[in-house]
Structure formats: C-alpha cells, structure tokens
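Worked example 4.2. Below are the chains of a multi-component assembly; read each line carefully before continuing.
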Amino acid sequence: MSRVRRRPPAPVVAAAGVTILFFAIPLVGILQRANWSTVWSDLTTSGARDALRLSLISSVLAAGLSIAFGTPLAWVLARSAVPAKPLLRGLVLLPMVLPPVVGGVALLAAFSLRSPIGGWLHDAFGLQLTFATSGAVMAETFVAMPFYVITVEGAMRGMDQRYEDAAASLGARRLTVFRRVTLPTIAPSVVAGGMLAWARALGEFGATITFAGNVMGRTRTLPLAVYLELESNQDAAVALSLVLLAVSLLVLVSLRGRWLSSS
Amino acid sequence: MTLHVDAAVRLGDFDLRAELVAPAGQVTAVLGPSGAGKTTLLRAIWGSVPIDAGTIRTGDRVLDSPPGTFVVPEERRVGVVFQDYLLFPHLTALENVAFGPRARGWSARDARAAAAALLERVGVGSQAGLKPRSLSGGQAQRVALARALATEPDLLLLDEPLAALDVGTRVEVRRDLRRYLADFAGPAILVTHDPVDALALADRVVIIEAGRVTQEGTLGDVTSRPRTPYVAELLGVNLLVGSGVGHAVELDGVSVATAQPVEGPTLVLIRPSSVALHLHQPDSSARNQWSMSIGELNLLGERVRVRLVGPFELVAEVTPDAVAALGLVEGGSVWASVKATDVTAYRA
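Applying the procedure described above to all two chains together yields the following structure tokens:
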C-alpha cells in the first residue's frame, strides 16, 4: 500500500465524470419523469398485471431451462475434448451479440407453422410456438442461456480440477464427481449465471415480439407492454419501466460483480 | 500382491521411463529432486495420466498397458494422499472420509460409521464435524490419510505427505504415519524429496532423477553404495566417478588410493567424517593428500561441513573446535587427507 495516494490526472478524472453522467442522466430522467401519484394504479391495471405475471412466469421458466440445458453444455465445453470447440462455443454465444430481432427472425424461420420443424411439431404434437407463451419462453431462453453458459463454463475451468481427480481416485464415477464435487464448488456461479440469465430473459424484447408476437396475456411481457403503452399512456410505460429498472439494479447489486471474475 | 511398474510417459517436453517394484506390506520411498518425475509416476499409477508404453499392474491385475488396457482411476482401487491433501472444502472431515465408501455404493449410514471409526483411529475423531479450513495442517494430513484408507485400497500412494507441515508437527505426524503404514497390507509408495522421511518410513528406496530410475534397493544398499552424486549428496557422502587402475582410481588428473583393487569405471565413496584437514602437508600414513581451498563452511549441529574445492569437490566434516584451532576461513587453503582404508570403491 502506497503511503501517498496517487490520483489520476485531472483531465482523466473529468472525462470519467462525463462518462458517469452519461449513465446517470437517463436514470435521473426516468425517475423525474415518473408520475409517482399514479404509479401504483398504472401497475395494477389488468393489462399491467397480465404483463407482470407473464414476464415473471416466462423469465423464470427461461432461467430454469437455461440451467437445465446450459449446465450439461457448460460441462462439455469445459471438460471434454470435443472437436471444433471454439466454433461450438461461438455458436452458443452468438445470441449475445446477435441483434435480438435477428434471433427472432431466425426462430420464426425455423419454427413457424410454415417451416418444416414448426409444421411437424404442430402436426405431431399439436404444438404451436408462435403467438404462444411457449414461444415467448423459447425466445427468452435463446437470448438468455448464453449468459448462463459462459458464467458456468468459466467457473468450471477456473476451479481446481484436482478435486475432481481426488474424487475419481476415491472411486466416484463422473456423474457422482459432478454432483458431489464440481457442482458444490461452482454453486455460487450457478446462482450468478442463473440470475444473469433471468434478468436478461426478463428484459427480452426483440426476439420475443418477432417470434412470439404481441398477444396480451400470452406473449405480451413487460418490455412489450412498455413499448405498447408508450403510444397511448406514457405514465404507464414509465411505471412499468421502473419495475424493470428496479429488478435490474437488484440483480446487479446482489451479484456484486461476480460474473466479472473468472472463477 | 506386488505393484510392478514398467512404464514410459511423455508429458510435453518431459519424458519419464520408470521401472520399479513395490512389494506388499512394504513402504517404497520414491526420492528425487523436484521436477524429476515423482508426481508423474504417481499419477500414472493411480490413472490420471495414461502411460505411452509398458505396463502397470498389481499382482496379475493389469491397470494400464497400452494400447489395449486402461483401467479408469475410479476402478483402480488405489488410495492417494495428495500433496496438499485436496480435502473437499465443502464437506466436513467425516463426509470427506465417507466420500469414497459412498461412491462405492455403501449406504450413507455405513459409510459415516466407517469414516468415524477411521478418524478415531488416526487421532482426529473429535474433529469429525469440522470443515477442512478449520483443521490444522497435521489434522488435515490425518484426515487425508483416513480418506485414502477408507476405500480399502489395494495400493496406497502418498505424495510428499509431510511437506506442508511445520517442523514440530512433522516429527509427530511422521511417527504416527509409520505406524499406520505398518498396518497397511498392500504396497505403499511414498514420494518425497526429504531423505529423512525415506529413512524414517521406508523399507525400500527408488531414486528418480530427470525422469529415470537411477537406483533402487533397500535403504542400506542405497546409503552405503550411492550411484549418483545426487544420492550421495542426499545421503551426505562424497561420491566421485573415475576409472580404477589397481589400487587407485584415476579422476581428472588426480588419483585416489584405495585399499582394495579396482578396475574399470568406478564409484568412489568417501564419508565426510573420514576427511582430515591440515594447514600444512601432513606427514602421515594417509595415502591420499590433496591441497585444496575452502569453498564454504556450514555449521550443522555439532559438526561443521567444509566444502573443499580443488582438483575435485569434496565435503569434510570436522568439529567447530578444529575449525577454530586451524583458523579455517572461507577462501583459505588447506590440505585434506583420507586414508585409503576409508575410501570405498566399487564398480559403477
């Protein structure tokens, strides 16, 4: 620890200050724009309650699916010698950089009733993903799961794998090693990755509206409701936005930068 | 059931070729400088590194023999005490020890009962409920041993089991370890770089240097006839390599007189305590006299080890009184003498 605290030069501090304002001003803007007297009533209209309920259900389902299917994938990516792993990882992480609306178009092309798979799903199981909650969940999972996968894969790579070796030397088969050693060791990252995926799913807009449409009570999640209300009732749009803002801040604070560190 | 290893392993630039035998009921110490391949050898035995050629077997059971056979670690029945123990941090001492039996299909209750008994036996019964981070080094070592023994392995491997302990704990744990190892029926292999551990715990020694076994035998064999400078240094004796010509061994330009005749490539062994030091050329019966300079003086307990530099390097061991009486200082000149009867020479 240095005895004299060294400060960055004044121009750097000034530039950093501008950057902070850039992020702070929109936050202040939405808070001062909110019509606090009507916030509660705006959030309790039947449309808002539907959107809140739907968002909660679909985002929790998307986070659950991300954990259920993302964990085995993270395991494979972190531990096995599958060929073309960088390519595979790129494919899985693509939705993180892909514009969500493009993701929605791709899902639509692959799973709409007129597509081969979508048609088959409908004929064989009576399952229709477009304009259905299942489609909204699928769109949310598509964009949210990569956040979970990179978090958990990073944790698996970062952990001391000699514990897994020790477990194997004690006679534990690979699934037992995973369940009793790997998973408990990376549990904090599973939680962090799950929360990240959930937050991302909660905010999902582009892929959902493109693939699943904007059907009240079925696919109209909070972000879609915000977008719609902006046309007719700005106060309600701001109120719903505040909910999303509060949830995002809550997730951020509770994670405390955990996804930033490698382990 | 004896462990037979005859294996070649290549890991990046490192290449290990080891052949050794570890009999049941005996402790075989694998000694060597760091980076010699000791840990790689252990990893090959318990299966975390497949060997590239050769065979590893316990009795008739082949564990690894490329290209046909490779038994995965979880089926090898090899107990391992790892260097830094690798106790599962999220499990209590009891659950750590019960882990192996549970993984092998015991009921949780039976596994815990067996684990509790084992912890009691190695003297950490009252720490059963603690997580590893609350255990002292000595306690963790005992839990690690109990965990390795809990699966009733055919074979026990200990990788530098005492290296992480402070001096006081080390003596105590070493004494107890000797007792537990004596009770173990199968072959036990102890990897260490500390000859004291080997002397205290092992029946047999295998020396590995730069990926090769350079010597193998009983402790007595190896101590009395070290074959490489490393072994000699390790066990505290001077070892010179030369060529025997009758009653002398020719080194680089110097000859060492021996009592018994020797021919051909020869190892010469001189105990440091057999080397006498004089300020002037001695007028004595000693057949070997060399003028040397003092490279280093080290006080070791009641003795001073004097490193001599001259036509070759030699370590002498004298009393502090002798150092004072002769006025020995680093860089000073001195005559060293050794009686031919104190020189052991044997064919390399």
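Take a moment to check your reading of the output against the notes. Chain B touches chain A at residues 46-48, 72-80, 82, 86, 88-90, 99-100, 103-104, 147-148, 150-151 (CB under 8 Å). The first helix of chain B runs from residue 38 to 46.
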